[in-house]
Amino acid sequence: MTRSEPFVGRSGAVAELRARLAAAAGGTGALVLVGGPAGIGKTRLVETVTGADAVWGRCVDDPGAPPLWPWRRVLQALPAAGAEVARALADLDGHDGADLVAARFRFVALAADALVAAAEPSGLVVVLEDLHWADEASLRLLRHLAGEIRRSRLAVVATYRDTSFDADLLGRPGTESLHLEPLTEPDVRAYLAEIGRSGEDVRDVLRRSGGNPLYLKAVARSSATDGGRAELRHLVRTAVAALDAGARELLAIASVLGEDVDAHVVAEVAGRPVDDVVPALDRAARAGVLAPGIAGTRRFAHAVVRDGIYADLDQGVREDLHARTAAVLEREPALAGVVAGHWLRSAATPDALARAARWAEVAAQDAKRSFAFTEEARFLALAVDSRRRAGASDGLGALLVDLATAEYRAGRFAQSFEHAREAAGLAPELLVAAALVVRDVAAPDLLAGMAELTASALAHAGPDAYPVVRAKLLAQSASIAADRGRGGEAVKTADEALALAEQAGDEEARIDAVRARLKVRPLELPLTERLRLGALAVSLGGTGRPLVALWGHKWRVDAAFEVGTMPVVDAELAGIAALATTTRLPLVRWHCLRLQASLSAYRGAFARSRELNRLASELAGSELAEDRSTVGLTFAFALQLALMVGDPGELPEGYEELLAIAPPLPITLISQPLSALVLGRRDEAQAGYDALRPLLRDPDFLGHTPGVGVNLVPLLEEFRDLETAEWLAERFDGEPPFASGGAGTFCGDCSSSWSARLAALLDRHDEAVRLFEESIAWDTRLGARPYVVHNRVRLASVLLTGGDVQRAETLARQAAEEARRLGMPGWLRDATALLDRTRPAADPLTGREREIATLVAEALSNRQIAHRLVLSERTVESHVRSVLAKLGLANRTEIATWVHRRERT
Questions:
Q1: Which helix (H) or strand (E) holds 396?
Q2: What is the pLDDT of residue 202?
Q3: Phi and psi dihedrals of 57, rounded to 5?
Q4: How many CB atoms lie within 10 A of CB 355?
Q5: Euclidean distance between CA atoms 320 and 347, whole angstroms
Q6: Which of 212, 727, 816, 843 has the maximum number of C-beta atoms within 10 A of its C-beta?
Q7: Which residue, among 12, 423, 323, 25, has the nearest Cα to 178 in the 3D structure?
Q8: CA 49 to each of CA 11, 13, 55: distance values in angstroms, whole numbers, following the listed order
Q9: Going by DSSP bridges, is the β-strand pair 124-129/55-58 parallel, antiparallel, or unpaired?
């Protein structure tokens, strides 16, 4: 379609797109996705609105295209940004192991920064065409850019077809969507008038074209009576048939090359001088088959034009042209994937398949250097398939290990494990490498197979294997055992791995072993050792190995929480925040948000903790979707927050559905009846707890994570399971005391609090009082204000049962005041109910009446009180009248006097 074609029916879209670009130039950047079916006029719209300074990149319908292909074209037009990205790649070159995943993210972040910087100070418009054909690396960069673009002068306009597009990108913050609809009857009438065909039946033309501008052009110029696509095909065939035989041959070659047409490559494939080829291509352009492209190149007028010419080629002709094209392009190593694709589409001879496999492996290495792991896996899969079809088995096992590794880095864990297992079956010497591909993935459907493969590798290596190799395999085995809830096995195996790693002096093996050991029963390791190993991990990690540094900081956070050294907690959390800022790695940012949310709740800053939990949940959904445990921890946090504030409304929708499909780990099994209890479904909670009871005495069940035992306590209290309470109390007595724990999910209360609750349940009055007092002292010193409320309420209850009414009243009043300040509705109700029990004669008010009287004393109006307590103003007015009547008072001033007098006494 030439640009002399009428442009109708798009005034609204033009205005909207211009407004977006103007806003970007003013400092509010945007990613604008222009969608619609093929031929609807997406490119024409963008060309009409964007100026000559816009930078264009096009995705191509070629599985062999190098990663980041459209961005490469963009960066060629932006030398400064291109140089910055090249430097980033050079700086990150040489990373290996799991750190490649971190390096990939840093590369994406640096590339996004370079594009944002290129938009200063005057603004920049980048156009990406045919995003539905984009490779994963290109989409990853675009997703990241969408999160940064709002605060820049950069506008990215991308066109895409409706079908099979990245829905996640459409929903990203910073993304605007502009969908082009078919032309209407007035639009078609205007089009026909402009081309001098006003006499046509407008409704018939609209029906035949479907309002698609590309088909409209064909219908308006064709006498055919079937649909617009068929008329377009007829038009293309007619235009091609009118050309000379030489031009038709060149168009056939061009259709094999793809949508972009390079005259020099066409000339080489055809074996003709380029000076003969250029005029022939120009004749095709004048016939409307080709259109001017970028920097003197040409391209097909539309994808459907190229598809039509390609489809009309006989199979033998296509195969021959693909083989000739592959032979020509082999001189361009940068197009290794394209070369592999052409060999695959040529005749399937052993030689062609072998060459396809060889070039696919080269393309995979190029993709790996660009941290494009999805594309690396795709090329390696192509190489594996080509070798199999060619009957070449040599080296296939090693190639499968490479494929499994790329898939693991791309987050395709199930596929990765299957290919690793296949490699081990083909070549026993690859057992060790295969067993160590998939690591730290707690997917329940993979764990049994991973354990079996690791056991086979250990048996193959034997007890006399190189210590580093055996240490890594043992650490892998321990990690899997921990994820399967087999704590005793995990501890024993991890200890053996750690001893071997220490003996070998290999720091990486040592870190692997320590990580496995700290997955289960971490408190059994001496505190000083955990602090030392944490410091070691931080020093080994830095920004070059950020995940190692992250684990080190987290180990030190847990250790510092255990003894209540809050300055160390804050310092280590600041270290994680700095690591998140410098690396911008999603997993590090997610852990940082999780810890910050947990610590905020621990200190009573509930609004901030909810916001941080929300941000962590959004990050998990957008960047860490392959790891379902990240979503699970968001819900686990909500359950603990509901318990902390006493409000079942904290539990989000979908929590029970998630628990139903979660792996049957101890903490998950405990959470099911606990969440039912929080939601007020006591019978369901009772049934769930009864089903759990036979499992509780299993050491691996209680020892799976520290959270299992403490989450059991509310169930014991509710169902008065004294036998299990006695047993659990003995277990707690045998463990070292701690100030708090579980910061990665939710900071728990100190150990004396849990023991106090069991003592109270078992009617050990004096022990319960002593332990609750100890808990209040601990929590007060550490700034755990919500837990101070909890323990004051519980201690008041114990004292009231023992007859110490005056002290119980003081504690309950203090708890009620703090619960009101912090926003803990359930605990405010409990404290108020205790107050009702402590002073029935001197104070005839109900808990709610006393609460409202206190707010009256603070000079709040009825409307303000209603807003504070989430009541209607009429209800508050009714309570105030009741207070006046019960106390025999005349006005609000007397209520305030009565409240202040009660507070003094």
A1: helix 396-409
A2: 82
A3: -140, 145
A4: 23
A5: 7
A6: 816
A7: 12
A8: 11, 10, 13
A9: parallel
pTM: 0.69
- CA-CA-CA-CA torsion for 866, 870, 876, 882, nearest 10 degrees? -140
| Helical packing angle, 682-692 and 706-719, nearest 10° | 120
pLDDT in tens, 665-688: 788 888 889 999 998 899 999 999
Q: Is 272 exposed, middle or buried (0-12, 13-18, 19+ CB in 10 A)?
A: middle
Mean pLDDT, rounded, for 703-719: 82
Token pair of 579 as six digits? 């690591």
Distance separating alpha carbons of residues 804 and 639, to the nearest angstrom: 34
Phi and psi (nearest 5°) for 159? -100, 145
Q: Residue written as tokens 């100030």?
A: 739
pLDDT over 50 (residue 224): no
The helix (run of H) or strand (run of E) holding residue 129 is strand 124-129
pLDDT, tens digit (0-9, with 9 covering 90-100), for 526-581: 888 888 878 888 887 765 678 788 888 998 998 898 888 999 999 999 999 998 88
> How far, in Å, CA of 147 to CA of 112, rounded?
10
Give the separation between CA 581 and CA 870, rounded to whole angstroms: 40
**Whether residue 166 has pLDDT greater than 70:** no
Supply angle C-alpha 793, 799, 800, rounded to 5. Answer: 90
Residue 841: CB atoms within 10 A of its CB come to: 5
Edge-to-edge strand list for the sheet holding 290-292? 260-261, 298-300, 290-292
Structure tokens at 878: 């009714």
163-172 contact pairs (CB < 8 A, 24+): 163/37, 163/132, 164/132, 165/35, 165/131, 165/132, 166/131, 166/139, 168/143, 168/622, 169/33, 169/139, 169/142, 169/143, 170/33, 172/31, 172/143, 172/146, 172/147, 172/622
Which amino acid, 450? M
Q: Is the dihedral of CA 870, 874, 879, 880 positive or negative?
A: positive
**In this structure, what are the phi and psi dihedrals at residue 692, rounded to the nearest 5 degrees?**
-80, -30
Average pLDDT, rounded, for the chain: 86
Is the pLDDT assigned to residue 232 strictly greater than 50?
yes
pLDDT value of position 225: 45
End-to-end CA distance of the chain: 90
Contact call for residues 883 and 849 (beta carbons, < 8 A): yes
Categorise residue 736: left if φ over 0, alpha if ψ from -120 to 50, beta otherwise.
beta
Q: Percentage of the chain with pLDDT > 70?
A: 92
Give which of 98, 80, 87, 170 is closest to 131, Cα–Cα: 170
Rounded to the nearest 10 degrees, how much is the dihedral formed by the CA atoms of 265, 269, 270, 276? 20
- Please report where in the chains the tokens 């997917």 appear, as a residue: 443
Residue 543's pLDDT is what? Answer: 56
Contact 438, 413 (CB under 8 A): yes
pLDDT in tens, 328-365: 999 888 889 999 999 999 988 999 999 999 999 999 99
State whether residue 328 is helix, strand or coil. Answer: helix
